[in-house]
Amino acid sequence: MMTARLKDKYDSEVRSKLKEQFGIKNENAVPRLHKIVVNMGVKGAVENKGRVETAARDMAIITGQRPTVRIARRSVSGFKLREGMPIGCAVTLRRQRMWEFADRLISVVLPRIRDFRGVKDKLDGRGNYSLGLSEQSVFPEIEFDRIEFQQGMDITFVTSSDDDRQGFALLKELGMPFRNRDGERA
């Protein structure tokens, strides 16, 4: 089985750089990518039940893994939402699929976004990073002619580090195109 290009880069370059940069002695304490969670909340799922299935199909094509359908936990009359209704889908990527998805996202998908100037450099305080995409059509696997509706998604990179400095350094070394403070790509 071939290993992902980004995984090879992590093993050969990034791990040693991070170990040196943060003065880490134990090899297992070096920050690493733990998992990637891709989540789609489907707009209009209440009126049209087929939208969740369409979004799940698109997500399966994008990630290479069948998503789980998320259901509403409680009823909200203002949104005409009942408990148990399907409202979205999510996938948790690990190991080989995680590395391949991250590589595709960083090197192919993000540069395809119109007027792309980099992603924000704000992490969650525990070394994890989330970003949102406004449409699924930026992925080359999705055929533009077959898109029934534009659907955004949230992508969360979960790292093994406990603080933002190490998480940011890991993602930066992996090639995440962070935006500088003045708005330009770093």
The residue-averaged pLDDT reads 77
Q: How much helix, percentage-wise, in residues?
A: 25-40%
CATH superfamily: Ribosomal protein L5
Gyration radius, to the nearest Å?
Answer: 18 Å
- What's the level 1 CATH class? Alpha Beta
Structural class: alpha+beta
Low-confidence stretches: 181-186
Beta strand count: 5
> Which percent band covers the strand fraction?
15-25%
Number of helices: 4
> Between the first and last Cα atoms, what is the distance in angstroms?
34 Å
SSE ordering: HEHEEHEEH
Oligomer: single chain
- Kindly give the count of domains: 1
CATH topological fold name: 50s Ribosomal Protein L5, Chain: A
Strands ordered across the widest β-sheet: 2-3-1-5-4
The gross shape turns out to be: globular
Largest sheet: 5 strands, antiparallel
Features:
single chain, 186 residues, alpha+beta, 50s Ribosomal Protein L5, Chain: A, 5-stranded antiparallel beta sheet, 4 helices
Describe the structure.
The chain has 186 residues and is of the alpha+beta class. It has one domain (5-174): Ribosomal protein L5 (50s Ribosomal Protein L5, Chain: A, 2-Layer Sandwich), CATH 3.30.1440. The protein is built from 4 helices and 5 strands, in the order αβαββαββα. The longest helix has 18 residues, at 95-112. It is globular and about 55 Å long.
